[in-house]
Amino acid sequence: MAVQQAPSHLGRLVCLFAFLLLLHSGYSTFEHLSYLKAIDGHESGLPQDIVIELMASVAIFGLGIVMVADDFKEILMETEMAKQTIESLDARPSFYGFSHRGRAVFRNVSFKK
Amino acid sequence: MVNAAKVLQDLRASAERKPDVVVRLGKPLVESGAVMKLDADAWLVYEQVAIAALDVGDDALAQKCIQALETKFPGSPRVRRLNGMELEAKGELLEAAKIYKAILEEDETNVLAAKRQVMLLRAMGMNAEAIAALVKYLDINYPDFEGWLQLADMYMEEFMYAQAAFCMEEVLMLQPQNHIFHLRYAEILYTQDNVQLALKQFCRVVELCKDHVRGLYGIKLCTSRLLKSSPSKDATATSQEDLKAIDLLATERLLAVYSAGSAASAKSASTKWIEHL
Question: Which CATH code is given to the segment(s) B177-277?
Answer without folding.
Answer: 1.25.40
